[in-house]
Amino acid sequence: MNTLVIKVGGAFMQADELALELLGVIKQLQQKLCVVLVHGGGPMVEELLAALNMTSHKIAGLRVTPADQMPLIAGALAGTANKQLCGLAIKADLNPVGLSLADGKMCLGSVLNPELGRVGSVVAGDPQLLKLLLSNEMLPIISSIGADSEGKLLNINADQAATVIAQLLNAELILLSDVPGVLDANKELLTKLDGEQIAELIDKGVIRDGMIVKVQAALTAAESLGRSVTIASWKSATKLLGFLHHEAVGTLISPAISPTSTTLPHSKKTKAD
Ligand SMILES: Nc1ncnc2c1ncn2[C@@H]1O[C@H](COP(=O)(O)OP(=O)(O)O)[C@@H](O)[C@H]1O
Ligand SMILES: CC(=O)N[C@@H](CCC(=O)OP(=O)(O)O)C(=O)O
């Protein structure tokens, strides 16, 4: 069976009804595909830090993560967000297994850039654990907390995490957010983009904030997997069933023409490269 990696942003877990609808669609997709869910949780991180009177900021879409905030961020992502999503999956009659990127050595992490603190990059490691779970019809639900070779925790952007999981399993990849896809300057959906068009839209300031990391992660995946990656909304779950019949949803990111335009800031090459 082919494998599909679906990534959902943090706002997803806070929209129970829509989340349950998407999880119902995942149950249907499981008839035809192996599905792995990767999740973010930016809003949960921010809520926890704010409750503790702590602040946080992002550089180029990546949250600067001082070492003393790492246990809290791991709690919000691998704890609150992961378990909340596993709970919703149980309600949707799925068989979830909550994991982080270090489990079963599925991904190997290292510090991305010391200026960002414990922010990490990961490369594909051992797929055995995920294959075992998928062959038993379980739904792996993976948070973007990883670890370095010394076992110290790392905070990985969840779009980048999903990209590496797709590389690990040679899977299709869909990145779901709270927007219908990548939008142009008039807020109209762009149905197809390649590396050159993306570079231009970033230059013009049309693609901003978290969407920059997302499109760059999608390009990295598209290039290394040699197939298009979808950016779409988790708010229109049933449209995703069209994916089974090769119907396009959201924005299709196709492999870049210019490989240099796809590199993430300071990112390392993955094994799949
Ligand atoms: N051109 C664009 N098209 C769509 N969304 C964009 C664009 N530029 C910036 N964004 C912003 O990017 C956000 C999605 O990125 P992010 O907040 O990181 O999502 P998630 O948490 O779902 O991963 C959108 O909610 C939107 O505010
Ligand atoms: C390094 C980095 O930026 N980590 C992200 C991980 C969670 C994430 O990516 O969540 P969303 O998908 O909801 O944005 C963070 O701390 O917010």
UniProtKB/TrEMBL annotation:
Residues 2-233 form the Aspartate/glutamate/uridylate kinase domain. It is found in: Cytoplasm. Substrate binds at G41, G42, R63, N155. GO terms for cellular component: cytoplasm. Pathway: Amino-acid biosynthesis; L-arginine biosynthesis; N(2)-acetyl-L-ornithine from L-glutamate: step 2/4. GO terms for biological process: L-arginine biosynthetic process via ornithine. Catalyzes the ATP-dependent phosphorylation of N-acetyl-L-glutamate. PANTHER family: N-ACETYLGLUTAMATE SYNTHASE (PTHR23342), N-ACETYLGLUTAMATE SYNTHASE, MITOCHONDRIAL (PTHR23342:SF0). This is Acetylglutamate kinase. The lineage of its organism: Bacteria, Pseudomonadati, Pseudomonadota, Gammaproteobacteria, Alteromonadales.
